[in-house]
Amino acid sequence: MTEQIYSLWQRMEQGWALGDGETFASVFAEDVDFVTVRGEELFGRRAVAQGHGQLFAGPYRDTKLTTEISLIRPLTDDVSVVHVTSSIAPAGITTHAQAVVVRRADGWEIAAFHNMIPKGKS
Predict the structure, then answer these.
(1) pLDDT at position 1, please?
(2) The predicted structure's pLDDT at residue 120
(3) 85-108 pLDDT, tens digit each
(4) What pLDDT does 121 receive?
(5) What's the pTM value of the predicted model, to 2 decimals?
(6) What are phi and psi of 5, to 5 degrees?
(7) Across all residues in the chain, what is the average pLDDT?
(8) How far is it, in rounded angstroms, from Cα 31 to Cα 4?
């Protein structure tokens, strides 16, 4: 389970490195509830892909995402809460996220994601 959950964030990093919103968003459930660092609510994988595609074409072009999982807390055999710190270089941005990951028939995916920039870290 742990390796499969870590692989979600590895794929997210790969999508970011490619500047590809579709690849980045592929780790999220079709019906994901996603809150951005600005508090905007995105509903669904398509919205996450489009939003990040715009970021990769604009202010985050040629940046690198590095993630570090600090907590995986199983709630059931098929649901876990995950805490992640992410860094965006060279932008110098650090974010903290809390995610709910779920096991589906074809593997793990992120069903809910809340991302924020800690005070004093932007």
Answers:
(1) 74
(2) 73
(3) 999 999 999 999 999 999 999 999
(4) 57
(5) 0.94
(6) -70, -45
(7) 95
(8) 20
What 3-state class would DSSP assign to 45? helix
Token digits of residue 62: 């040629």
d(CA 61, CA 56): 5
Q: What type of residue sits at position 90?
A: P
DSSP string computed for 64-104: EEEEEEEEEEEEETTEEEEEEEEEEETTTEEEEEEEEEEEE
Its domain, for residue 58, covers 2-116
Encoded tokens for 122: 């932007």
Query: Any idea what the CATH number is for the domain that residue 58 is in?
Result: 3.10.450.50
User: Measured between alpha carbons, how far is 84 from 115 in angstroms, rounded to an integer?
Assistant: 9
Residue whose structure tokens are 């650090």: 94
Task: Please check whether residue 13 lies inside any domain of the structure.
Answer: yes
